[in-house]
Amino acid sequence: LELYKQGDTEAVEKISKKISKLEHEADVIKYDIRSSLPRGIFTLVNRSSILNILDIQDAIANKSENLGVLLTFKNAKRFDRFDEALHEFMEKCIETFQGAQLVIDRLDELVETGFGGQEAHSVHELIDRVAVLEHEVDVNQRELIRMLLEHETSISYGDFFLWTRMIQQLSGIADSADELAAAVRLFLETN
């Protein structure tokens, strides 16, 4: 998004293609994991919980790819205070995603501790933090949409549409990050 705001369409196109390639690689990994998970009754963890976590991670990758593609269409017009609000929104979305990523990164440690103890408590705190961050994203999203509507007569319909779609994709990443953290919470509570 920073390169997009700078008008560097060549760099945006290059990054968009890289995101698409990575999303495809993630799909391949997801299918490999799905096919290698045991199907028996007696497994250490619930297979459907793992599959749900994988599906949510896939949704994040898909939304990231969608955002990358949207950024390649055109450089939409901006206006006073919008860049600052967009930057704050984007940072909050990234922070929400990174929080969910931390939760996922801690799963190995949780397996080693039998899904309990201080490690589980620490992960629950991270999950709670992700939920708070996602709410902040929602608040920022409403403000951005309000700003767009205040300037609807000074920007084209195409720019308005593009901004709302980009904001939705970014917000969707944060929503999915929160959903991912909640899925891990459920996973912990059932294991």
Largest sheet descriptor: none
User: So what's the overall shape?
Assistant: globular
Evaluate the radius of gyration. 19 Å
Mean pLDDT: 90
* Number of helical elements: 7
Would you list the SSEs in sequence order as H and E? Answer: HHHHHHH
The N- to C-terminal Cα distance equals 39 Å
Give the SSE map.
Blueprint: H1 2-6, H2 9-36, H3 47-71, H4 82-105, H5 107-112, H6 117-150, H7 157-190
Fold and architecture overview:
The protein has 191 residues and is mainly α. The chain has seven helices and no strands. Helix 2 (9-36) packs antiparallel against helix 3 and helix 6 (117-150) runs antiparallel to helix 7. The model has no long low-confidence stretch (mean pLDDT 90).
Features:
mainly alpha, globular, 191 residues, 82% helix
Task: Quickly describe the structure.
Helix content is 82%, strand content 0%.
